[in-house]
Amino acid sequence: MQYPPLSVYIHIPWCIHKCPYCDFNSHEFKDQNIKNNEEAYTHALLKQIENYNIEPNRPIHSIFFGGGTPSLFSPKAFDTLIKKLENTFGLDKNCEITIEANPGTFDKKHFYGYRDVGINRMSLGIQSFNQTHLKKLERIHSPKEAASAANLAVRIFDKVNIDLMFALPSQSLSDVKEDITKALEIGTSHISYYHLTIEPNTFFYKFPPQLPDEEKSAEIFDLISNELNSAKFEHYETSAYAKKNSQCLHNLNYWNFGDYLGIGAGAHSKLSCEGKISRKSCFKNPRDYIKNANNHKFYDDEKLLSENDLIFEFMMNALRLNKGFNQSLFEQRTNLPISIIDKELSLAKDKKLIIQKNGRIKPTDLGQSFLNELLQIFLKD
Ligand SMILES: C[S@@+](CC[C@H](N)C(=O)[O-])C[C@H]1O[C@@H](n2cnc3c(N)ncnc32)[C@H](O)[C@@H]1O
Ligand code: SF4
User: Fold this and answer.
1) Nearest ligand to the C-alpha atom of residue 126
2) What is the CA angle 303-309-310, rounded to 5?
3) 186 vs 49, 152, 247, CA distance in Å?
4) Which of 62, 290, 329, 347 could make a disulfide contact with 96, Cβ separation 3.0–4.6 Å?
């Protein structure tokens, strides 16, 4: 069997402040010392890396340090982790190594340090350059800090992504236009532009802010698409826009249903082995994760994917890509013949949600706008 590319995701689960819209596995570290957390947690991560048993000759395609706020940790922690991954599995020659950074933790020395230990891509959680919106989102950074962090990042990293959010409380079209103008001035080559969603278990869920209605949100979305298209950014995935050769290789591997090792609190892995695909998830609470790692235990759930899981999960990822996927990729990655979804593909075509042409399946504009409805078709039980 030819294995798909293998990526690594490492989760750093602490933040200075929990944002009111965020349902990620992130915890305020208020009363603890982040240095102690860094040491104990890095030690646990190293143990988990040692514990993996992967076939030889599967060098790492990409590494992503996500969070939470990885930029709370020092370059030394990432140096240790990258070296461990390199010595354990080997790294591809062009391995993309991303760190997520929060401009509120901006530290010039750390940014250079991250680059010096081999990190070649930075993803900055800016959300907006507008003080009123930053305040409403309870972000810990100012517009000035956002611009300083981003300006330095584009100078020192090969690739830089800026995360922005739209359809914010009372956000006008001109506010959005200003955010885009600032991002373009900085010269970033990748923008992840997320529609603010109100997730259960968040402060905004309990105390919902007044958000733009559907019509206004659609207008904002069109503005974003047009502005970024004019600036030569390709809209290549639901929320991702990139200049030529600047797509995120790590995320592309997820969307193409590649393999990944999830390391750290709450991280998930997807791994192909002997014709089967397994999923594992790590203990979610950082304290539990560290405690269990000392006893060489890392996972609280593990399962082999059924045919129905494989079909749905493949579609859930690949249909996010505006160019869709080749039928041969479906067959390679799931080990199932494309004929197994003939009925579902026909239904999606009848509803004008996909186009199937020359062996390629791609979502239509309608399919992209109603992705959940499209995916429902492939949910078998
Ligand atoms: C996992 S977060 C990590 C980034 C980093 N911790 C930060 O916030 O600066 C990645 C991105 O997801 C987006 N995001 C998080 N919660 C969201 C929500 N409820 N709706 C839309 N986008 C969200 C934000 O743009 C955020 O930068
Ligand atoms: S900084 Fe990022 S991960 Fe942390 S709470 Fe805010 S959105 Fe969530």
Assistant:
1) 1
2) 100
3) 37, 9, 18
4) 62
Amino acid at 282: C
Pocket test for ligand 2, best of 16, 23, 24 (most atoms within 8 A of CB): 24
pLDDT tens column, 14-68:
999 999 999 999 999 876 678 889 999 999 999 999 999 898 899 999 999 999 9
* E-only strand ranges, the chain: 6-12, 14-15, 27-28, 60-67, 91-101, 121-127, 159-166, 190-195, 234-237, 240-242, 259-263, 268-273, 276-282, 299-304, 325-326, 354-357, 360-363
Ligand nearest to the CA of 194: 1
Q: Which residues contact 52 (CB under 8 A, 6 or more apart)?
A: 88, 89, 261
| Structural domains in the chain, sorted by start | 6-253 (3.20.20.70), 308-381 (1.10.10.10)
Q: Is 356 helix (H, G, I), strand (E, B) or coil?
A: strand
The DSSP code for 262 is E
- Nearest CA among 205, 187, 188 for reference residue 196: 205
**70-95 per-position pLDDT tens digit:** 999 999 999 999 999 999 999 999 99
Question: What's the pTM value of the predicted model, to 2 decimals?
Answer: 0.97
